Each structure stands twice: as structure tokens, then as C-alpha cells.
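Incident review: delayed structure delivery

Summary: a single-chain prediction request sat in the queue longer than the usual turnaround. Root cause was a stuck worker, restarted by the on-call engineer. No data loss occurred. The affected request and its eventual output are reproduced below so the record is complete for anyone auditing the incident later.

Affected input:
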Amino acid sequence: MPINPKFKALLKDPSIKFTIILGSGFHRQALGNNSILSNWEILLSRLTHSKNITGDFNLDFEKIVLDQFLYQKDNTKAAHYVERDEKNKLVSFLNQEQAYVLKESNRFKYPNIFHSSKISDIVSLNFDTIPEHLCKADRKKPKKENKSSFNKVKNSDNTSQSFTAQITSFEEIKLQNESIRFWHPHGSIDKPSSIVLGVSKYAELVKSSIQIRNHYKAFEEKGRSQELKELTWLSQIYNNPVLILGASMSYIEWAMWTAIVHRNRNFAKQENKKCEKPIFIMMSPEDLENRARHQWFEPLFSGLDFNEQWTELEKLFKIK
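Output delivered after worker restart:
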């Protein structure tokens, strides 16, 4: 059978809900590989006249910022202001593309997998908010909620607008009488300052991820009351079985790897193993042959290309 039997068994369990880590492959399935939503090289190329995008996108962005800083005519802007302007441009491009895709949504077949009976959380690695819009009947701008347990504990005038508070906010959308939460740890186009791109911002994200992890451990070790349920994007990766869809999980994803490594450490003791939920990932046939690269995850399917895997997922998540 091409489907992982562990995934199939969990899918049948009515008490189980999944957390999805969603990458740009979700857009690639609907839009192909020539959209700025599905192709990082094309997206960053929009910021520069140079086509020298290497694929190491953090350093590519740093080079774009440095070039713009060096070539500015009046030489008055500090580099961090140049970085802010480049991110604002990037957000403008993404907003335009998102508006076009949503307007023409009948032309593009996005995988229909967001069913609240089996999915509790979407942790998006993308900057856009198309999945939220596709789930909302009114298509209004998503409203972020600052209701995570991290923000409730840390809430003050000083932290409410902090970077960590921004990336632990979520939008909750009610579907089929249940809800799905949408998280954007890399930031989103709703708030350009939250966008995680470049070396220093990724370092800040790792630092914030460790803060959130320490918050999680404090809940776990001190046995906090049920009045304040543990709820962050990281807790939903720790506590639920996880599906990594449309994301290769390259080592540039520092924060996700920080979360996953600490997740594995958390369940390393033999007495904790029984509580550990699996992490499944979409793999190409080539990835399946290179098991060393994905020793942290279990293949969701075998013998299927990505198009076939998305199609199979739609069938499996179809509401009966």
C-alpha cells in the first residue's frame, strides 16, 4: 500500500487531530512553479535586476539589501532601513499576487485538505494568507488573535507588539462546527515587520522559538491549571501527530528544526516514548532513496509523485 499504515490508523481515530506544517509546495500544486508564491527564486528576483539568486535565500536576501545600501544615491539610509524597504516591496508583490489568485480562484485547483474534523492547526512557512482566505466564506482579511498561552502569560504593553508575540498569534476559523488555527512563525503579509528573512531575523526566530519552548517546559514541569491551556504553534507540533506538506524541510528552516530537535529530546526517555506522536512528510521517490536526509520523519506515502500524493490526501480527508 502506498499510504503509511501509521498515518492511516491515526486518521481513523476520532480522538486524533493533526498539525500541518505547510510549505510553498501547496501553491506549486495549484499555480505551478512560475509564481512568486511557489518559487522563492522568482520572488527574490523581483527585488533585484540581478539573476544571481543562489538558492541560499537568506544570504541572497542579505546580498540584495547590501547592494541596495551601497548603490543608494544619497547614501543616507542605514542598512536596517533598506532592509525594511525591501521587505515592504516584497509584501507588496505578494499582496498583488494573492489578490490575483483569490480573484481567479476558480481557475486554480488548490488541494482541498483543510477539514477541521481531522486538523486542528496549520503552521504555515509561507508569508501569504491564501489558505485562511480559502477557508473563509466571506474572504475578509484574516484577523490575528493574540490568545496563545505564551501571550497570555507574557502579556503587557511591552510584549504585545514584540516579535515573539506576533509569531505566536493566530487566526482561528470555524469550519464544520469545529475550528482550525492558522499560525505564521515566519511572519505574514498582514504585518511586514514580522517577515522572517535574512540572517539576523532567522537568528531572532530561533531565539524566540527557544523562549516558546522554555514556556512549554514550564507548563509541563509545573503542571499549570487547565484554566490556561498550553497553546502555541510549538505546543501543537509537540502534542499532535504532524503532517509536513509541500515543504522540503531544508536546513535553512532553523526554527522548525529547533522545534523538531527539542520535540525528539522531549520524548527521548523510554517512559515518554508512549506519548510521542509521529511526524509524516511528503517525499519524492528520490527522497525516499535518501533516507539519511529524512531520518527525523516518516514518509507519508511511497511510490507516488507529489501530484498523486496531494490527490490521495484530498480523498483521505474528504468529509463523509
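Verification: The first helix runs from residue 5 to 12.
Action items: add queue-age alerting; document worker restart procedure.
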